Known about the structure:
Elements: H1 3-26, E1 69-72, E2 82-84, E3 94-96, E4 99-101, E5 109-115, E6 118-125, E7 140-144, E8 148-152, E9 187-194, E10 197-199, E11 202-205, E12 208-213, E13 216-223, E14 243-247, E15 255-263, H2 280-300, H3 308-320, H4 324-343, H5 346-349, H6 353-368, H7 377-389
Antiparallel strand pairs: 1-15, 2-5, 3-4, 4-15, 5-14, 6-9, 6-15, 7-8, 7-14, 9-12, 10-11, 12-13
The chain binds magnesium ion (MG).
Magnesium ion binds at residues 139-141, 149, 151-152, 248, 250.
Amino acid sequence: MKVRPALTTVCTVLLLASARQAASSTGSPFYGDAPDDHHPWAVHDWNRPQPPRVEPGAPQEAKPPADALVLFDGTEACLEKWQPDDQKKGKMWVIKDGAFECVPGSGYARTKEEFGDCKLHVEWAAPTPPKGDSQGRGNSGIFMEGLVEIQVLDDYNNPTYSDGFACSVYGVSPPLANPLRPPGEFQQIDIEYRHPIYKEKECLDPGYVTVYCNGVLVQDKIQLEGSTGHMGRSKPRPFPEKGPLKLQDHGNPVRFRNIWLQPLPPRAGVDPGIHGPLTVEATMAKRKEIAAMVREDAAKLKDPANPVPEMLRLMESLVYEKEEKTAATVDHMTGQYVEGLKQLAADKVGAKKDEAKRINGAFKYLAKFNIVPADYAPKVELEKIIKDQGWDKK
Ligand code: MG
């Protein structure tokens, strides 16, 4: 009876020591930057919930779309696209069984080409049998622009701090789920990455990342907080236009395959992009550009014997930009057209029915959108001709 409390004490001390040891290598307590006004958890906080397990569907072979830039397809030729990140070490990862394998100690592998916003497909497999635990088991990383790490880690059966879990935005955002396959099997990762955009010191778009792991959404358009790092709270900042894709050497022979990338279109409003709602300034610039293109096309249709196609195309250009010179040309051409119609012999007018109605439709459209006034003289006159000829009746 006297021994038991002493034994309990010894066991408690051992357990605490072991917990402390684990904490020293894997995170909290008193480890990463503390909670703050926007982060209820510390960086690498073990009190942050573990991602729930979601069983992935059966693996399906993924193939690069035609517009993808293939960075690794298992062939030696692809090594040309990669180089050691640490040129002094000068050691390169190796191809084994068609996979790009990390050689521990060689440093990160990086692409020679640099990329900005992109969609990236990567497949990775952790070593088997598994060795180590927490951050020590099958650790690597996919570094977008060399700055933002999407964690690679064998968490199939391996708890770790959740903001360092596989598919976390490392130190920032734990994955929504754990859909990992066992070590040795390839995980299919799809990343959509948008980097921060600044104009001088003003942040126009903080950037974000969306990640799917084995077809399961694990990062849902997570806002970036600058580049990622260990223990420290990352801070928003401007990024370079482009950066290399880097794969991390964390001392484990993690294997990669099927790596391909598609650049994403520029964002509307912040980049000179046209996908999505545009600012007034950007919209007007684009409309001007379209109008110029339509006018250029109209010039090709110039035909004194049949001016109608050119006239209609010029009228169309006014929808995008009411350029004074073009508006005056349209006034002149439509006025002449209506005058010509009025002068036409009675037996020849009938042949103009469809054409006149088409031009009338264009007038109506331009008036509806206030590009010409409702009482625009050629429009009023043409309407009268159409009525007099009975073309307005069905
Ligand atoms: Mg890592």
